Amino acid sequence: MAEHTISFDKTLSKLLEEKKYQTLKDVMVTMNGADIAAVFEDLDQDRTPLLFRLLPKELAAETFTELSPELQEHLIRGFSDRELREVVSELYVDDAADLVEEMPASVVKRILAQADPEMRKEINEILRYPENSAGSIMTTEYVSLRPQMSVAEAIQRIRRTGVDKETIYTCYVTKDRRLLGTVSVKDLLLAADDNTPVSEIMDENVISVTTLTDQEEVAQMLSKYNFLALPVVDTDQRMVGIVTFDDAMDVLVEETTEDIQKMAGMLPSEKTYLRSNAWDLFKHRIPWLMLLMVSATFTGMIISNFENALAAQVALTAFIPMLMDTGGNSGSQASVTVIRALSLGELELNDLPAVVWKEIKTAVLCGVALASLCFLKIMLFDRMLLGNSGISIMTAFVVCATMAVTVLIAKMVGCTLPMLAKSLGFDPAVMASPFITTIVDALSLLVYFGIASALLFG
Amino acid sequence: MAEHTISFDKTLSKLLEEKKYQTLKDVMVTMNGADIAAVFEDLDQDRTPLLFRLLPKELAAETFTELSPELQEHLIRGFSDRELREVVSELYVDDAADLVEEMPASVVKRILAQADPEMRKEINEILRYPENSAGSIMTTEYVSLRPQMSVAEAIQRIRRTGVDKETIYTCYVTKDRRLLGTVSVKDLLLAADDNTPVSEIMDENVISVTTLTDQEEVAQMLSKYNFLALPVVDTDQRMVGIVTFDDAMDVLVEETTEDIQKMAGMLPSEKTYLRSNAWDLFKHRIPWLMLLMVSATFTGMIISNFENALAAQVALTAFIPMLMDTGGNSGSQASVTVIRALSLGELELNDLPAVVWKEIKTAVLCGVALASLCFLKIMLFDRMLLGNSGISIMTAFVVCATMAVTVLIAKMVGCTLPMLAKSLGFDPAVMASPFITTIVDALSLLVYFGIASALLFG
Q1: N or C: which end of chain B has fewer CB within 10 A?
Q2: CATH, range B137-252
């Protein structure tokens, strides 16, 4: 599909240069909002307003929603009030609320002035909810039915009011705004008798979330139950909106990207890579780099303490990187696995003993395998092939014993720290590779010099 | 929701012990298949067949689909042929195909024997497609309409045939099995005139995938366009099935987990953490650990080569971990960012020059900041506070210059290797932290000793 967009790019630019507006219009109406938005992003900003005005109303709104905040702002600044009103009135309420959140104050004022009073009220309601809550991503446009309606009446109501709703396929049966049950259009269409009241065919086992439920949890529930939408209720159990599957998919992708960024020692950023400039990247990367660099002072101090031992047994120094790297890798395997399982909801905090026990067994297997291979490598490669006679069998033993102990420590630290972080209310993702590596580095050096002191200089 | 499941757990176990089967049934029918499956997984396996038999047919199938392969196999082995037939006939074709793929040959034989001939044919068709292709995750159960049908006839057809279809909300207009357009139930219900032919209201700009399209690409398209389902066509452009959004969400989550596992130096595994035993974990973790350990031989060799220099300037050794860690962290920040952007489709291979240039600028900013902080740290902490007079200003300069150069190299290696891997047809995710760390370790030591030789021993 990417190739399609790229070739369209050229065609549209050419048509635009030649001022063939009718052809441009004919081409664009065959396209999808997301694709038109992708083309717009690649164009010179100043040419976008002209192209945008060629789009029919609904497609214009669809395209607008998919644009970057920068381009949205640029377009809005060029809009007349009438144009702005037209676009805003076509937006779904949740998209309008997203827009208001992204724009600077002066633009927000204009948007709210052009929204009709009903929409303005709904936008403000959504914006009241904390960031990343179900309330902040929900839409207030859903189909509600009354329990005593017949199937035929319900279908009538959908036909009459459905055009403005984000999804019509799941309808919500409410009484005094309290949610009694859900009924799908499939149930309505497949009902045997048009006169059956909705209350008889509705599903009363409603799974709902509250306005304050975390958006990641909402997304996981939608994914787990394969629902098209989840109803959102307030603290009085009154229905206030729905979260639809497409928003949930976006949340899943965003939250995972954030997790991955944190795991690699970066502050999370919502900008895509190509839209971030070097300064953005710097700001998000430097804090952890500095913190981790400074904390490596400990490893340095440990080595300084054993300088004399190292000077006496210079061969020991050469194995430091291998021991540190293997420890770091073992630890990050455990931590990343646990972090992912936590964020998918596969692990709970009370699984900690089971996790630790499993990691101990895994560490013993890995430790024995690595230590054996390492011993072979030192004997065959370093001693025989390279003829490095400075490495005694005792030195090899010290290295391999350190290897086994380091792997065990690394796996334990790797699996417990993320769970500890979570139980303290922190995000487990920051306890991933870089952080674990720094701790494991220090511990592995202590083990190394401890074993070396006992066996070689004892 | 997790708490709900846990408390249900106890209730159901208790009811089961007391043989209160009617109550059990009454409780379970209020639950969702996914939740019942979660309870089943926690129960003693031998008690599940009894509970399963209490479920009404449709809920039984829904629950069955959500169970782990181990428990599915256990249940099937206990089923009579009639029971197996009942469950299989209620499954959607794509779920049945998944089941057949997971089960051992003897069980597969029984399943296929109990499936009706039509379903058996469709299962076999799906299984013919390569793993991770659109064909392998599609379902063949969709609503097809003819172009000349009126809106009323279309709705009639949905009401008559919809009960067995995985989604009825997007219908596919075909002629001689060739896909002409799509029409949603929303369009049908909201159409002004019941006599309008479907061909007039259908959307002819159909976005489709082929049976061989990669499942990750399919999932990203569904997420990009916010579709409920995407049609799948064969090489002759004939429609063969659809991929629905719920399967796409599962694919997104699975593929991301695989990416994360690879990025942390593990072979990807489809088993959840709690279901993997220590041996499984060992098998997935040890190959990369061994490979990386052995490749650390190079770093060891570099250090050995400079043993004499290190013996003369023991203070240099203490900074090795800090330089290696900072290099590794800088490199993995770049590689992980690029890998994620590649897998989200935000980056293409021809963006490489732009990426390298951006990383160079970021590296210069990070390098200067880190080197300055490092110089301050050495001067104030190591020399003044710890009184380590062995560290000359020249040594501090060597360390800081190495730091800046290492960060630059690390960011360059980190951003280019994943893109190179992709252009060679490999998975970029394996080029993440551990791999980059090993390369950067060796390079940073070479830089360190190079600069030290020139400035300290020159």
Answers
A1: C
A2: 3.10.580.10
**Token pair belonging to B286:** 């040890």
Interface touch B249/A249, C-beta < 8 Å: yes
Which pair of structure tokens corresponds to residue B427? 């998975």
Contact A263, A339 (CB under 8 A): yes
Whole-number Å distance between alpha carbons of B273 and B279 = 12
Give the C-alpha separation, A445 to B317, whole Å: 13
A-chain CB neighbours of B205 within 8 Å are: 30-32
Sign, CA torsion B199/B203/B205/B206: negative
Fold classified for B296-455: Tetracycline Repressor; domain 2 (1.10.357)
Place of tokens 């870089």: A434
- Classified as helix, coil or strand, A44 is coil
Q: Is B389 helix (H, G, I), strand (E, B) or coil?
A: coil
Distance CA B123, CA B135 (A): 11
Residues of chain A with pLDDT under 50: 1-6
Asked if CATH classification 3.30.70.20 holds for the domain at B2-130, the reply, yes or no, is no
Q: How far apart are CA A412 and CA B300, in angstroms?
A: 26
**Dihedral pair phi/psi, residue B16, rounded to 5°:** -65, -45
What type of residue sits at position B166? E
Which residues from chain B sit within 8 angstroms of residue A345, using beta carbons?
A: 2
Ordered by start, the domain boundaries in chain A are 2-128, 137-252, 296-455
| B243 membership: H or E segment, kind and range | strand B239-244
* Nearest-by-Cβ selection for A329 from B190, B292, B345: B292
Distance separating alpha carbons of residues B172 and B212, to the nearest angstrom: 20
Are the CB atoms for A452 and A316 separated by under 8 Å? yes
Name every residue whose Cβ is closer than 8 Å to that of residue A322 and which is 6 or more positions away in sequence.
A374, B293, B296, B297, B299, B300
Amino acid at A274: L
What is the per-residue pLDDT across A200-248, written as a single tens digit (0 to 9) for each?
Answer: 999 888 889 998 898 888 988 888 888 889 999 988 888 888 998 888 8
Q: Do A223 and B277 touch (CB under 8 A)?
A: no
What are the tokens at B325? 């860690």
Q: What is the architecture of the domain spanning A2-128?
A: Alpha Horseshoe (1.25)
Alpha helices in A181-319 (DSSP H): 185-190, 198-201, 215-225, 245-263, 278-295, 297-305, 307-312, 315-318
- DSSP assignment of B371-385: HHHHHHHIIIIIIII
CA distance A115 to A103: 15
CA distance to partner chain A, nearest, from residue B30 (Å): 6
Tell me the C-alpha to C-alpha distance, in Å, between residue A202 and each of A25, A183, B25, B208. 45, 5, 20, 34
Kindly report the pTM of this predicted structure. Answer: 0.75
Q: Which residue of chain B comes nearest to A307, CA vs CA?
A: B314
Burial (0-12, 13-18, 19+ Cβ within 10 Å), B161: middle
CB B251 within 8 A of CB B223: no
Dihedral, CA atoms, B103, B105, B108, B112, nearest 10 degrees? 160
Mutate to test the interface with B, among A329, A356, A402 (most CBs of B within 10 A): A329
Angstrom distance (rounded) from CA A453 to CA A302: 13
**pLDDT tens per residue, range B210-229:** 988 988 889 888 888 888 89
Q: How many CA atoms lie within 13 A of B352 on its CB side?
A: 13
Query: Encoding tokens for residue A44?
Result: 């010179």
pLDDT < 50 positions in chain B: 1-6
> E-strand spans in B85-226?
142-145, 167-175, 178-184, 209-210
Contact B296 A325 (CB under 8 A): yes
Q: Do residues B334 and A284 make contact, with C-beta atoms less than 8 angstroms apart?
A: no
Cβ proximity of A365 and B284 under 8 Å: no
Q: Where would I find the H helices in B424-432? A: none
